[in-house]
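Quick question, first post here. What does this chain look like in 3D?
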Amino acid sequence: MTISVSRRAVLKGTGAGFAASLFMHTAPTLAAETQTHSGDNEWTGYTICDSCNHMPMCGITFHAKGNTVIRIENWKEHPNHFLCSKGIATLQRLYNPNRLLYPLKRTNPKGSEDPGWVRISWDEAIKMIAANLNAVKAKYGADRVLFYCGDPKEPRPPVMRLARYFESPNYGCESSVACNLAYVHAEELSYGQEIAGGPSPKTKCVMIVGKNGSWASPHGFFRNLLAQKARGIKLIVSDIRRTKVAEQADIHLQPKPGTDGALAWGMIRVLVKEGLVNQPFIDQWCTGYEELVQYAEKFTPDYVEKETGVKAEDVIAAARMFADGPSAMMLPGQSIPHQHNGCNNVRAYSLLMALTGNVDNVGGSSFDDWPKDYIRWDEGYTRTFIDQQWFNQPEQKAKRIDREFAPIWNEMQVLCSPNALPEMVKAGRIKAFAGFGANLLIWPDPAEYQEAVRNLDFSFATDYFYRDETHHDMDLVLPAAMNYERYAPFGVHGRKASARKLRKPVKPLGECWEDWKIALTIGAAVTGDSDRFFGGDPVKACDSMLNDWGTSYAERQAMLPNVNVCEWFPAPQKGKFAKGLLRFDDKPGFRTPSGKIEFFSSIQAKHGQPGLPVYVEPPKPTKDYPLKLINGTRRPYITHSKTRGDQPYLLELEPESVINMHPKDAQDRGLKEGDRVWMISPYAASKVRARVRVTILCQPGMVDAQYGWRGDQETQVMIPRKNWDPISGYPCCNDVCIEVVKADEEKKSA
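> Answer (accepted):
Ran it through. Tokens below.
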């Protein structure tokens, strides 16, 4: 089946007036101007949808006349060749009349109701950025500038290169704020690097933890899962919600919110007590087993049932099923890490792999086989391109803004955590902000971050649209090209590769530049070294990496529409830890300080934290706030704030904030499907509006919501800027207790 959507259908379906009415914050100077197109010949190009929050994954074939995309459809040769509702709506975003098309400069003082935006040239904008960043560097030091990359994720490589050669160690991104890097961080503490992965043909059992891939990755993930189920794989799902993935499970473990760590330790105890561990593997390749056995003792099945709500017999059955492997594990990207003890809870789950010996074995969880110098996260760049060694130097780590806020993260991760931005600005640790796709709504209590930006010496951001919540008090806003309008970067999908963007992109509307070009041009301007930044050319920048593997952007481009196996990939191997293929010194073992899998983390202990991934009870509901809020959940057709403001098709599916609530909780409050409600939090000065959906998706005593709505629907105001996870520095978006009341029955205390 091929899905095809035309530009005519987009425009006919919405109308410019209707589309514009859905945008709340459009500066008067941002009126779109029609791009002049020429030529009647139809041609075909290829791009990747970037509507999801993970790296762009799904292929789009587009047809254009002149410089106008007239129709899009599935890219059938691409590994991810189906488009969901978000992918189908990307053409609507491209031609949205509210696109930001020209560089804008503020003319009124910060804090003014009207920023006084005026259109300027790119030459003026680049000179202004270079002058201000270099002034901050000369007066305070390069480490007083924070470089940040939000969404889209593609410009991370050149932005990080810009930070490196500007000599600022403070480069952060969406993943180091609140996305999915915390679960990788948890795995690195135990294994030295990311390991958890999906099932393979030899896998007998797979355990999926807190991951609703049927919504977050609606095509590849769920189709693969169903295929595995069809061949007879056993499936354990640990998830607080009754998701579509959970409904496929042989055993669905549904713990109370925040109690995942207790559940994981309960399974660990069963493995130990019943002799289901792989003792030879533990003796040779692991450390801290004695401490683990001692700590696990209290997590009896009865205790775990009382603490988590999961039946004792289900805990025992799940542990036995996982031990009867080979077994693989898929850990959560965002759900569990967004707790005050999230990283340790993920670590506890991850130890099940080591205890059973399902580590880089046939059918178990494996370390990936990547080409030389390749970085798995933020696909499409290398350690050399960003000079990762420089960021990892102790003298650079000592200058980073997260050294006191998140010391374990600071030691282990090359990306800094900017979550304490307001405090850093108040302390004078940050004087300037260089943002690429920055969105202040990602943080708890966004007003704190808006004030921080207001108090900076200088700030700018690139974006597709003007977003008042983020841009209002910045000095410059720069127009970014969209996925149909840009080349960079190349990308890897599994073991296949493509020139990730376009074979022949349409010309960007107005004066939009792709983010790679913006970052590279700024880099040349602030350093005076154009060659180091490839003359601002994104294709040349990609070639600097691809050439090391004996290929080029043009060569990969010529293969399109086919997406071919990467010849430069090493042949897949198992047991890499025993062959010296994991450690940088080529010795057998793992990338941990001990060279072994660490049940007891030496790094956590060094920083005054428990070495074991201990369980910490979550905040308990109270009489006034009896419901646990899960904030930041997904819908299959919405990705937080990024797909709401600019794709009216998607807003037709869900035009306002909707929270999910169990039927019992709704009945207790006299609520029915579709009722307007207020959410009340002890941490919010104002109540938050939503409509209620009554569903068994949620268990009693919890509600789930999406963040990224604006105005009185913004749920992030209910999340406190405290109780950051001490291991990762992540916010506790899933640890807040609230109350929900009917809109006409709001509490006076609100």
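Residues 195-366+592-606 form a domain with the Dimethylsulfoxide Reductase; domain 2 fold (CATH 3.40.228.10).
The chain has 29 helices and 26 strands.
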